[in-house]
Amino acid sequence: MPAPFPHHYETSVQLEDQSHAEGILTSAEELPLRVGPPRQFDGRSGHQSPEDLLLGAVASCHMTTLVALARRKAVPIKHYVSKALGTLEKTKEGLRFTSIKLHVEASTDAGRESELTSLIEQAETHCIISNALRLKVELDIGAIRGE
Questions:
Q1: Which of 5, 55, 96, 116 could form an S-S bond across to 108 if both were Cys, CB 3.0 to 4.6 Å?
Q2: Mean pLDDT of all residues in the chain?
Q3: Which is higher by pLDDT, 134 or 47?
Q4: Which residues have a Cβ under 8 Å from the Cβ of 95 and sit 6 or more positions away?
Q5: Mind spelling out the 3-state secondary structure of 15-26?
Q6: Which fold has domain 50-146?
Q7: Where are the domains of the chain?
Q8: How far is the C-alpha of 58 from the C-alpha of 72, rounded, in Å?
């Protein structure tokens, strides 16, 4: 059962290496995560970039929203994998993500594929992370199989 609203979230980032703009991201009682710039902005390996985290937030929000919807409808999810692809471009407003595409493949019981497809679409509509973005996340549903 979810906690009553409003929900409050807090994260913090502590700069660890100024010369490489790397730090440690923490949130309440969760494991710390090393963060820094992506290679495209002269970053090094060994950490997650803000760009990675944005795409990961979209993908993981979709997954958790789908699981919640599927539970309510008693639609089993036997397999789920998604890939988020983002395009960052120079625009007249500055650097912006101009597209995010979420490719989803999943499976459920034979004969329930259309129900799962519908729930995948609903999950994107209800994803609070996607809804917080200026651009619309484009959803691409791949193979939906019955097993």
A1: 116
A2: 95
A3: 47
A4: 88, 89
A5: EEEHHHCEEEEE
A6: GMP Synthetase; Chain A, domain 3 (3.30.300)
A7: 1-48, 50-146
A8: 21
